[in-house]
Amino acid sequence: MFRAVIFASTLVLAAPAALAQQDLSKVEIRTETVSPSIAVLFGAGGNIAVSHGADGTVLVDDQFAPLTPKLQAAVAALGATPVKWLINTHWHGDHSGGNENFGKAGAMIMAHDHVRERLAEGSLHRGGRAAPAPKDALPVLTYHDGITLHLNGDTVRVMHAPHAHTDGDSILHWETANVFHMGDTFFHKVTLPYIDLGSGGSVYGVLAAADMVLAKADEKSVIIPGHGPLATKADLAAYRAMLAEVIGAVDSAKAAGKSLDEVKAMKPAAKYEVKGGFIMGDAFVEAIYNSEKGHPRGHRPDRSKDVMGAHSHGGGAHSH
Q1: Which CATH code fits 2-290?
Q2: Hey, what's the signal peptide range on this chain (predicted)?
């Protein structure tokens, strides 16, 4: 199922007409409650967090456009009001495909600067170049380092994870509820990590993102991965250990002068492969081998275009 969902995500980026032929009508939305005011929706695409309460409903990611009515019904079934705020953890279509629908329904969309840039321009991805997103699908409030929300009796830290899965990843931390949403900086039990090098991603940033959350989490924390079941701090620590081991093996071999093919032949990630996973060992090794340290750019939109005009500049929402 995961492989099919990711394949569908490449279709939504490269060929929306092809996605329309995929049968999402049979997808069922499963809801799991993690705290009195936070739930997770599992469907086809990235895991969705729902924060609801007296201040309104916050949705984190929104899967594919055809699923919007089902997601709205799942939100209503929680006793929550219609979505007031929507946060994208990154720009990929299996996490932002419903933006236009929710934007037209009145939700304020928030995301990292680079998410708006990539959606507005139509960026590159495994499936090809995405079409530029319509205005209603674009984040209207963007930030660079992060933003803090005070909603529904909780303090929500939205933190940028630089150059990780992409160059625009956000990690959310509900401090009172002790819940994290890591987006695709964390794939749990479903595949080896996917690093979108073309979108400025780097495996070193994924490792740093795991460290960021591990420094804040405790044994009672609930961690929502981008894909896969809910996780604990111990689960994330095991993921981090896997990353460090495979990265270390690839880096050592590369420093010794081995070619990519020679490193792949060593099979340093083979024991961590997940049957049916979207990313298998060789692909993960290649992503590590080609990852840059520091600030990889990947394919970047033309910043001369006016894609930043709707940014908020108040309250620290946009800081460089």
Answers
A1: 3.60.15.10
A2: 1-20
